[in-house]
Write a structure and sequence with these properties.
Blueprint: E1 2-8, H1 13-23, E2 28-34, E3 49-59, E4 62-71, E5 75-85, H2 88-91, H3 94-117, H4 132-140, H5 145-154, H6 160-177, E6 184-191, E7 193-194, E8 206-207, H7 212-236, E9 239-247, H8 255-268, E10 276-280, H9 289-297, E11 302-304, H10 312-318, H11 324-336, E12 342-348, H12 355-368, E13 372-377, H13 385-388, H14 398-414, E14 417-423, E15 434-439, H15 445-452, E16 457-460, E17 465-470, E18 475-480, H16 485-490, H17 492-505
Parallel strand pairs: 1-2, 1-3, 6-9, 6-16, 7-8, 9-10, 10-11, 11-12, 12-13
Antiparallel strand pairs: 3-4, 4-5, 13-15, 14-15, 17-18
Length: about 500
Amino acid sequence: MNVFISLPNGQFGHVIWELTRIFFPDGEVKVLYTESDEKPVQEYRPGDYLLTARYKYINDWEIEVYSQLEIKPDEVLGYKIRRKKLEKNIKDSVLEKKRAIKRIICQCIYDLLAEHTGNRPYWGILTGVRPLKVVHNLMDEGLSDTEVLDILSSEYMIKQEKAELFLETANNQLNILKANRDDVVSVYIHIPFCPTKCLYCSFPSVVMNGKSNIADSYLDCLILELEQIIGALNKRGTKIQSIYIGGGTPTALTHSQLERLMSAVKLLTDGHKIREYTVECGRPDSLDVNKLATLKAFGVNRISINPQSMNQETLDEIGRAHTVEQIISSFHMARESGFDCINMDVIVGLPNENISHMEKTMASLASLDPDNITVHTLAVKRASRLKKTLEKYPLTNDDIAEVMLQVCHRWIKKMDMVPYYLYRQKYMVGNLENVGYAKRGKECIYNVQMMGEKQTIWGVGAGAVSKVYYPAEDRIERVPNLKDVNEYINRIEETIHRKKVIIDRI
């Protein structure tokens, strides 16, 4: 089944494509680009859908939007019309007017497709990765919490429980975001190595089995990039607020390799008052007492030990070569090593898991009492083994996935944690969300800054993305590194030069 979307000049095509795909998850959704308001000429098969959206100005302050859904060959399934008066602040801004038109078109399409399918997505018309920006923008306008909730419900069609989660998360970020300064940045360091490849993983990571040579060569280039970039920042007097070493699995490095990396970071950041220094120790089978002692000795004050599930059959199925017992013992080992801020990740919607599996996972985590828990909803990425073998791993029902999220929320509330960052991804089960929870005062600064996009973050390593923030324009410039490890190694000088040009310019 194909779903074709007809828009004038393909306007707002990507956003409307994303919204339509939520209602037709099993269909092939395509935007048809036309040069006028006329319907495009297209070969349709019986059973194909055509979604049409058009808008026009009634006068210079009022817009009318029309949307229609039909199924080929010639059956109109429904249509919707919405009229909207533009507020003065919108009429006077070309950008705000464009955003308003896009929102009204999405509302009209949402009404039409919700009526046809019987599905009313929890997140309404929101489709972006960083939906919290909507709330922060409304807060910046001086709106009260009640007014924000009303707009999220009426304008963005978000269900009440998600709107409340949204608002609470945004409020819990304010103390971090409001303290931002132009001369303060964060640094992300990427280690693209793992002990095994997980079923759902789409990252271009390298399995470490017998590949220490490439890890050594990679560290040569990574440290060179760190020296050049942090060195340039130091000359400008720029301060570093947080460092995040992620992956992959950074602790998949050998002890000597890990120590070499940590030594380089320590030397380059000497004199900086780093508030937060995180290392992902995602796989418990990659940890030992010596590695934990090294991390502690070099000033790391936050780590992640990520079970994803506390059900052994699930761990075996998704390709994580460790046991539930190793998760528990690694957590206790980290506590005994002096780490008082430990994050643990879980995933809702893993193959063959149901509500009882989620209860078991959360009860096990509660008994460990971590400081952060990040609850992810499974995203089926195109480059993952899961996507290629969906006939073997049927996805969790959307309603069941939401109940599993509610199980997580109930346990997290018992653990006295609050939501502090939230983001979404394409192809998530149930079109749901990922939420980071923390005990008060243990919120991850880097996570808030990365998703908030109000601070420059310099990314180092293969696949890392730097985000340069221009506060006067409230704009982010993305500077991606090459993803392939070998390409990154071979073209390291080019990568460094591109970044130094930007640093010299800002």
